């Protein structure tokens, strides 16, 4: 089966596909970072949602007071959900776009702007920056995904 | 590297794969539309969640009153989350299904019913239609995904 | 086009790719199960969020009392969202990892540990088990994804 494996390796050798693999991984790692930031704020702000998570603070009322929402925790969680809503379309549409035979330079432009805009979005959400900082970074990444979707449908449309 | 590029283009030339690319893109664009509908309701209902989003309405108490939940906004957000919960499995399982060598007509049937059911689900959620409208459209799309998962496991099972 | 179809079938014939297809499907089916568990708890606990879902319980006040949150429903929903946050990165990074030419035994180790850890996470969340049961299962699956991401970037990096 080494022949097949070679064929697969060829896919990952294709430059557009490698660029997709790189930026998709970066943007997914960025999204995964949100879990760690949420955990950090939950622990430092002592704001938990599951009773079993506060057991180490004692029993009964003394632990119950840590079952509460905290504005910083909720802010990170909103940023995380916004990542899911926007990075899932990028993953799917971006993969199909990478397979639709775009120019390498055009593909790199799409992947780089999307990734940069989503990283900017995270900073804008967590600092937070005044609007329209967050709104603009969201709209840029959204538009890049729409542009890739247009290329996919133009190349592959089969209804 | 043009030989490899040609090979990739062959993947997107495959009719089952093109059908997957088309319906996956449509259903992701539909999901992305939920962000715009949420933004529309947040602005028209003046119901925001981040303090920095209400800064244009003035300072202090006059802006604070717009930091509130609105039933229409929450409804769209639930529809959006339900999309994520159901479209993510379709993306992953559907891709593997498209690569598992199904008949073109069978594959089209799966992709079309899933996409139609999820569009119906959005209408059922946002209008809203009386039950079991929303429940049925959810169940149809769910069943289509299960059917594709069965084919994938039957073809590819390697534990 | 049977030649191309054969080529696609070769992809699904590759053992690493078949292993990815198998475990990705299993973990997505597990995630889809959370929808059914949520529905089960909503119905048995009579705790709904959409007014149209309580219409069968009568009109006006008699139905309104079922529009409420229930701790068991909320717990399942948190588990479901945690699945989305962690299984989406596995889907994307795992696919790229499977295409990056890993050893079959190494790939199987990654896929099996991730899948086992996420199933353990669900049990830890729903029973619930005392901490650090849920935390550990989460961290194991998270670390496996990071390990795969490292291999993808090492193989494919193209910035």
Automatic annotation (TrEMBL), chains A, B, C:
Instruction: State the EC number(s).
Output: 2.5.1.18
Reaction catalysed by this enzyme = RX + glutathione = an S-substituted glutathione + a halide anion + H(+)
* Coiled-coil blocks: none
- Transmembrane spans: 20-41
Topology in the lipid bilayer is annotated as: Multi-pass membrane protein
Q: Which GO terms describe its molecular function?
A: glutathione transferase activity
Keyword Transmembrane in the entry? The reply is yes
SUPFAM superfamilies annotated for this entry?
A: MAPEG domain-like (SSF161084)
> Where does the signal peptide begin and end?
none
Localization per Swiss-Prot or TrEMBL? Endoplasmic reticulum membrane; Mitochondrion outer membrane
- What cellular component GO annotations does this protein have? endoplasmic reticulum membrane; mitochondrial outer membrane
Please name the top-level EC class of this enzyme.
transferase
What this protein is reported to do is described as: Conjugation of reduced glutathione to a wide number of exogenous and endogenous hydrophobic electrophiles.
Spell out the subunit comment. Homotrimer; The trimer binds only one molecule of glutathione.
Q: What name does UniProt use for this protein?
A: Microsomal glutathione S-transferase 1
* Species for this entry: Stercorarius parasiticus (Parasitic jaeger)
